[in-house]
Amino acid sequence: MGNPVVHFEITGTDPHLLRRYYGELFGWEFDTGGPVAPSVSEAGNYGFTDGNTTSAGAGIPGGIGGGSGYPGHAIFYVGVPDVEAALQEAERLGGKRQLGPEQNPGTSLVIGHFTDPEGHLVGLASGV
Q1: What whole-number distance in Å separates Cα of residue 30 and Cα of residue 66?
Q2: Are 47 and 26 in contact (CB under 8 A)?
Q3: Sign of the CA dihedral 22, 24, 28, 31?
Q4: pLDDT, average across residues 65-88
Q5: DSSP state of 3
Q6: Whose CA is closest to 106, among 38, 10, 6?
Q7: Lateral strand order in the sheet of 62-66
Q8: What is the average pLDDT across 59-70?
Q9: pLDDT value at position 20?
């Protein structure tokens, strides 16, 4: 396999409601104490899942956040060595840069977003 999917994210204008909904639906638990880039979510309003892996190791971490003024979306992030290089390649192939690169405060995590030629939002992450 090439670059793996390393994270999922769901954002909206009422992240508390979204976390409660997905928590009850899937049994997910969230930690809102971690840092998050301001372009992704309000500080203290992004809940990271606890990994949610099965006993066989299947599953990826994710998060639910946003806040007032944050557009709703569901996205997956692909791990890449260099977010800027991957964004440039996405654009060369017909995609459109939407965000980034952005560094998550106090971490080595760098993210970016692009839309593919049909408009689907996709995330990129390095330093995970």
Answers
A1: 14
A2: no
A3: positive
A4: 95
A5: S
A6: 38
A7: 30-31, 47-49, 62-66, 5-12, 73-79, 121-126, 110-115, 96-103
A8: 92
A9: 95
Residue 57 has pLDDT above 90, yes or no: no
**What is the reported pTM?**
0.87
Q: What is the distance, to the nearest Å, from the Cα of residue 27 to the centroid of all Cα atoms in its chain? A: 19
E-state strands within the chain:
5-12, 30-31, 47-49, 62-66, 73-79, 96-103, 110-115, 121-126
Statement: residue 2 has pLDDT above 90: no
What separation in angstroms does the CA of 33 have from each of 18, 58, 63? Answer: 17, 25, 12
Single-letter amino acid code for the residue at 66 = G
Q: How far is CA 79 from CA 5, 46, 58, 109, in A?
A: 6, 20, 17, 10
Q: Identify the CA nearest to 48 among candidates 97, 109, 120, 101.
A: 109
Closest to 104 measured CA to CA, from 16, 40, 30: 40
Q: Are strands 121-126 and 73-79 parallel, antiparallel or unpaired?
A: parallel
For 83-97, the pLDDT digits (tens) are 999 999 999 999 999
